[in-house]
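User: Structure please.
Assistant: Input sequence and predicted structure:
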Amino acid sequence: MDKMMRCAGAVLGVLINLPSMAHEQGTVEPRLLLKEVVQGMPRSERQEVRVLTASFKPGDKTVFHTHRFPVTVYILAGAFTLELEGRAPITVKAGQALVEPPNVKMTGYNRSASEPLRVVIFYTSDPDTPFLDLIH
């Protein structure tokens, strides 16, 4: 019985380690950073995917605006504060991401007095849709 338990333990150990054994040295596997179910994605036959960058100096902010479709923002450096109408401000830091909802009035800020802010923005829309709509 003791021998059978050792054998079962060895088999279990191999099975548990299979995923790490399958990973080849020097290969990269993606790490999930953000997973969110969203509403308001484009539904036309064709969509346009945009990847944008933005750099904010200390104290800079975006215009007061809305988006017609969800916008994903990934923070490369600094901290980004997003103020959405009717909601508490959200601050995300370097290495984090957030999804800005469609049709919500918002403004984004670099609240730092000394650190720059750099972001990458991912946006999917109907072709030729404006990235944002100004709120006056």
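The CA atoms of residues 14 and 20 lie 10 Å apart.
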